[in-house]
Inverse folding.
């Protein structure tokens, strides 16, 4: 019997186009994997150099006030003498849309610590009606703390699907029991 050569697969070289396509897919995949799995945070805290810049607030280093337990989660303890409030925010809910202003300036500043979730933050000047909008994802960016003067209008909205958590405390210039809250002065920049 005459052994005929088995027909071989046509040995046309694979077009270069497919190699380029393959490398492109691998590259895009690695890029996607890196950006979705490595948060830009250092030890759970957001990398401030990657966060949006603002003229209305500054970022605060709270690394010595936060304690993390693998089994329990995050504990935030404010600096000595400051009583913080911890606040949850349901999906799509808004808090704030106010400023803390009285004749004595009894509250000089406020610190807000975004512990978990996706937030929309609006901060503005109720006297000039200029404001800024920022979005923060504490799950991706890490824990974010910022400080602003209490006469700035401020509002936080949960733009995620789950309940968010944040903490906050006032920088007081005198001892007060009830913080002054002014909603009227902020009604031109309501976050809804
Ligand atoms: C924040 O403060 C801690 C000490 O409390 C320090 O080790 C750390 O480097 C500071 N981080 C930044 C980004 O300045």
């Amino acid at each position: 019997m005459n052994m005929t050569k088995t027909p071989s697969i046509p040995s046309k070289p694979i077009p270069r186009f497919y190699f380029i396509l393959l490398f492109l897919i691998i590259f895009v995949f690695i890029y996607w994997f890196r950006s979705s799995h490595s948060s830009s945070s250092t030890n759970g805290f957001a990398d401030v150099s990657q966060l949006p810049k603002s003229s209305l607030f500054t970022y605060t280093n709270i690394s010595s006030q936060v304690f993390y337990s693998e089994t329990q989660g995050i504990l935030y303890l404010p600096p000595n003498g400051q009583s913080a409030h911890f606040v949850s925010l349901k999906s799509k809910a808004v808090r704030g849309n106010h400023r803390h202003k009285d004749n004595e300036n009894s509250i000089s500043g406020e610190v807000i610590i975004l512990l978990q979730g996706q937030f929309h933050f609006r901060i503005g000047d109720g006297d000039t009606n200029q404001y800024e909008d920022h979005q923060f994802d504490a799950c991706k960016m890490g824990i974010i703390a910022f400080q602003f003067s209490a006469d700035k209008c401020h509002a936080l909205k949960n733009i995620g699907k789950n309940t968010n958590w944040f903490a906050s405390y006032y920088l007081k210039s005198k001892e007060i029991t009830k913080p002054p809250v002014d909603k009227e002065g902020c009604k031109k920049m309501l976050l809804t």
